[in-house]
Specification:
With 170 residues, this protein is an all-alpha fold. 89% of the residues lie in helices and 0% in strands.
Length: 170
């Protein structure tokens, strides 16, 4: 049933198509647009929460970084103090070792002096005994007679006293 009245004609088909289009738009709005809108809103909220969480984590990381940098600085200061203390103790220990070594050196030198004096006295006594024997042998040959031991001893002692006590000690 078509009625033509100029350029625009009225048809119930167009009315039904418009009604169908409006029903389709209403159904799409209810079943598609609202869920998509809710999903987009939910996604927007999730992204905003993630950004806030990231900002908080970043702030926490900065705070931890600052804290660790402070701790590292404190550790470096403490390490420097420990190094200075160790160096001081090392220098003190070195002084103690040097002082101990000097004391031992003086002790060894003193012992060596005592030993040298003892060896010199022993050598002097051995030399004195040797000279005494040579003098007795020479005196016995010169005199030609054998005197008794007591007389020999007196002569040797007298000879040593007169000839060389002063010279032997030099």
């Amino acid at each position: 049933m078509e009625v033509y009245t100029g350029l625009v004609s009225f048809s119930w088909n167009i009315v039904f198509q418009v009604i169908n289009f409006l029903i389709l738009v209403a159904l799409l709005y209810k079943f598609l647009f609202n869920p998509v809108q809710k999903m987009l809103e939910k996604r927007k909220n999730t992204i905003a929460a993630d950004l806030n969480n990231a900002a908080e984590k970043s702030a926490q990381a900065e705070a931890l970084k600052a804290d660790y940098e402070k701790k590292i600085k404190d550790i470096n200061v403490e390490a420097d103090a420990i190094r200075r203390e160790a160096r001081r103790q090392g220098e003190e220990r070195a002084q103690e070792i040097i002082t101990d070594a000097r004391g031992r050196y003086d002790e060894i030198l003193q012992k060596a002096q005592v030993e040298s004096d003892r060896e010199r006295r022993n050598a002097y006594n051995e030399l004195k005994d040797s000279i005494t024997d040579m003098v007795l042998d020479a005196a016995g040959k010169v005199i030609g007679e054998n005197m008794d031991d007591e007389l020999n001893e007196k002569l040797v002692v007298k000879f040593i006293e007169e000839a060389g006590d002063v010279k032997w000690q030099n």
